[in-house]
Amino acid sequence: MPPDRPASGSDxxxxxxxxxxxxxxxxxxxxxxxxxxxxxxxxxxxxLQAGRIRDPDARVAYEQTLVRIEALAILYRQLHETGSGTHxxxxxxxxxxxxxVKAGTPGGLxxxxxxxxxxxxxxxxxxxxxxxxxxxxxxxxxxxHAFPEQGWINVAVTRQxxxxxxLVVEDNGRALPAGFDTTSDDGLMLAEALASQLGDTLSxxxxxSGTTAxxxxxx
Length: 219
Fold this sequence. Notes:
There is one protein chain. The chain is an alpha+beta fold. The chain has one domain (17-218): Histidine kinase-like ATPase, C-terminal domain (Heat Shock Protein 90), CATH 3.30.565.10. Helices cover 47% and strands 18% of the residues. The protein has helices at residues 17-48, 56-82, 90-103, 125-143, 186-197, and strands spanning 87-89, 114-118, 122-124, 153-159, 164-171, 203-207, 210-218. Helix 2 runs antiparallel to helix 3 (90-103), helix 2 runs antiparallel to helix 4 (125-143) and helix 4 (125-143) packs antiparallel against helix 5. The longest helix is centred in the first third of the chain and has 32 residues, at 17-48.
């Protein structure tokens, strides 16, 4: 007679918790690597079509789409480079994001300096994604303002408490029109929706000296 079969699972040695954690971390890094490569491929394919866009409105929509995808691609690239799992150093992310938005802005507006000041704050992936998209929208919107000769954009991230921080994007560009409705602008409407995901509302203040937008987020 054949020997009795061992009880279910007894023929497979238990995996030590430390080894299983290492395996899960390796799997996560691989997923982030694939996400980064996939987003970079999408960006490359979109850029191949850039020269064929003649309609001004279509061109603006194309540029906005590219900026949004780049915001996510930069996030996944930094996660993969640092091997930090699901958290990103916010100052480094904001700097890389602002550089990408500026580089993707055609014409003389790309010469407007962007200053980034950020306290040492680390945020999780699911906070960084909406925050990065908000920054991309606000900075892109600022770059498309009619700037004076000495134009500037400031992006600041400061800690408010042990659980929340605040993002402020300000410029000295043209003020928003009186009675401006943010729902009439797709980018600002998206930023407001993303702000609600972070547990806050996007505040905007605009006058002859420029425009300031701010939102708080969990840390």
